[in-house]
């Protein structure tokens, strides 16, 4: 069982959903982003998701885009990602996944990227813009290194696509709550519940729902049927507007939602 799966299982065994928290690396600066990730771990996040800034973030909403562009303007370099992962994993046992678009990984070299991520203490990769059938090199590298590979499933995915995603993913399947970019939404798409059911029917061990989750009530609703909830924009906004103290407060508030749902699904 990988670190990520073990963290999700530990949360589920305690009667709550897992809380996956996203922050961009290098925002507002590298040192603060490292401390911010540690702050997540200290205030209830079960899995940390780090996003290296990218010049063409097609999936990111406005708040995250602004943060990643600020990180790039501040001089972020790929080596900073591995520095951050190393310092974060030295300070906490909470597993660290990297959510990265595929082009920077390919440019860096897939095997080199996997080796450097493993050496830094990283747990694996979430790859939002590459499908399993196009990721043979990464699948091979993850098998060799033991890193988790998290692929995305969307409400529009065919049964055949879901079978491939379930077969190819480790740690969890990133279950997209609604079509579109990241960001806070007043109401989550009910298609997420149906999608989780479809994934479970196809043998998914863990399905965590992301995109649009920004309140403890939304986390509670998601954790009623999924293994965990993924939050990004609300955390980035807190860090942007109030620094580390606000981030800690928001993280604690959101974490409370993971245990307030009646978790009746089978894991």
Features:
alpha/beta, 13% strand, 267 residues, nine-stranded parallel β-sheet, 9 strands, disordered C terminus
Profile the largest sheet: 9 strands, parallel
Structural class: alpha/beta
Tell me the distance between the termini.
14 Å
- Name the beta content range: 5-15%
Return residue spans where pLDDT drops below 50 for at least 5 consecutive residues: 179-187, 261-267
| Mean of pLDDT | 91
Summarize the structure.
With 267 residues, the chain is of the alpha/beta class. Helices cover 48% and strands 13% of the residues.
Question: How would you describe the overall organization of this protein?
Answer:
This protein is 48% helix and 13% strand. The chain is of the alpha/beta class and 267 residues long. A nine-stranded parallel β-sheet has the order 5-4-3-2-1-9-8-7-6. α2 (30-42) links the parallel β1 (18-24) and β2. The chain is globular and about 45 Å long.
